[in-house]
Each structure stands twice: as C-alpha cells, then as structure tokens.
Specification:
single chain; 259 residues; alpha+beta; Immunoglobulin-like; 5-stranded mixed beta sheet; rod-shaped
C-alpha cells in the first residue's frame, strides 16, 4: 500500500532469482529504510522474502533489499522504492463553550494534512452530557493546506418547574386507596377488644405501610429530559477511512458549561 497512513502495516516483498539454472537461492534478505535495517526475513521455497512493518513514521522512506551472498550465489541489491506515509493533525480552540440548555454552539476544528494526506475526515464528539447531540459534515483537503471543520453541539432545554426542579407524576388514585385502607385497619385495631385481633390488624397496617414505601421508592426519578446544568470536558475525534488505510486522532479537552 503506497501511500499508507501512519500506523498502518505495510508489506514489502523481495524476489531473488538465479541468473542461470533452476536452483533457487536460499538465505536471508535484509530490508532497509535508508541506512536503518527493518529486518532480515528468510527466503521461502519460491525465492521470496516478505517483511511487514507498521513502524514507519510520517514522511517519505527509501526502502531497499539486499540479498546476502551464499556458497552458490552472489549477493545482490534491489532497486529503491519510495514509501510515503501520510497523516493529519487536529487542533481545537481552548476557549470554553458556554451554553444555556436548549442552545447550540459550534467548535471550529483545524485539520492539517501531512505528506499528501487526501482522504476525507469525519468528526464526532466524546463525553457529552445527557440529552446533548453533536453533528458535523465530512472534511476534505485541498493540497497541503489546512482545512477547517465545524462541529455543532446541541443541548436540550429543561422543562420549567416550580423551584427549578421537575415534579414526578404521582398516581393519586392508588395512593388514595392505600391511605383509606390503612385508616380503616387502624380504626379497627383501636376498636378491637381481643388482643389477637389487634395484633393481626396491626400487622396488616404495617404491611400496607411497607407496600406504600416500596411503591413510592419505585416511582420515576423525575429526569427532566433536558441537558443538566454543569461543567463538562468534551473532546472531538477525527477519523478517516479510505484506500490508504484508517487513522484517527482525538483533540485536547474543550471546556463546556451548560447553564
């Protein structure tokens, strides 16, 4: 794969053939990036040596292969192949983004191509608060010039409520029936003359009270459905997937305050 993206595994193959006869050479082939050795794989049964590496850095690399001489064959050196490894960088402003719940704000994302990177890039957000969305359009490059993408962060308004907090909906019909049942049993327990009846009625009252507490505890928590007020630290991830491979980078933290 040429060009490739930063971190992508690249495969190099060298084939050693005899100048005469049908006997295939044996031994090793040393692959080099300039003067730096990348490895020395052994020739297989077809006279080929293969090296895979993901250690190449961003930029252009001069790759060559050298076959070491053996008792039956002289050594040889291949032609040089230029392997280009491309990438891009991401930068965001450190200015805090302050919004009132229900408002939308934008973040400008600067992407700079390196070594001819030309694949389109998609943007996404991380660590957003509840009931908040993030949207953007793909970013493309023109030559070596930086490109700017825009991310829109949309919060959700919180419903107005007395005291600034939403009240859960209370099922008044079942609650009223429960209260009436407790009152009847309590009155019966007071009027009962026999001790056994009083104990039984008291147990009934305690059972209903416990059932009421369980019912109340299982009531909805009262999530307003709006973006909660607070201070958050969000990031933007830029991802590119194409014929030259996949690569992604995440920005530094962006302070987000929701009022």
């Amino acid at each position: 794969m040429n060009p490739s993206t930063n971190g992508q595994q690249v495969t190099f193959t060298a084939t050693v053939t005899p100048t005469s006869g049908t006997t295939l050479p044996t031994g090793t082939v040393t692959f080099s990036d300039g003067s730096s050795s990348l490895g020395a794989p052994v020739l297989d049964g077809t006279g080929k040596a293969t090296l895979q590496t993901s250690a190449l850095t961003v930029g252009s690399h001069s790759i060559s292969a050298v076959y070491a001489s053996s008792a039956s064959f002289n050594g040889s050196t291949s032609n040089t192949v230029t392997q280009v490894v491309s990438d891009f960088t991401i930068a965001v402003p450190q200015t805090p983004l302050t919004l009132t719940a229900g408002q939308a704000g934008t973040i400008n994302v600067t992407l700079t191509p390196q070594s001819g990177f030309a694949q389109s890039v998609t943007l996404s957000c991380n660590n957003l608060p509840a009931h908040t969305t993030c949207s953007s359009s793909p970013v493309t490059f023109s030559g070596s010039n930086p490109s700017t993408g825009m991310v829109t962060v949309q919060t959700t308004a919180r419903p107005a409520a007395s005291g600034g907090r939403p009240f859960p909906t209370i099922p008044f019909g079942p609650v009223a029936s429960w209260i009436a049942a407790v009152a009847v049993l309590a009155l019966a327990a007071v009027r009962a003359r026999r001790r056994q009846v009083r104990v039984a009625l008291a147990c009934g009252v305690l059972f209903l009270v416990a059932a009421g507490l369980v019912a109340c505890s299982s009531m909805p928590s009262g999530d307003s459905g709006g973006t909660p007020a607070g201070t958050y630290s969000i990031t933007v991830t830029a991802t590119s997937t194409g014929t030259s491979g996949s690569v992604s980078h995440t920005s530094s933290a962006i302070p987000l305050t929701v009022n």
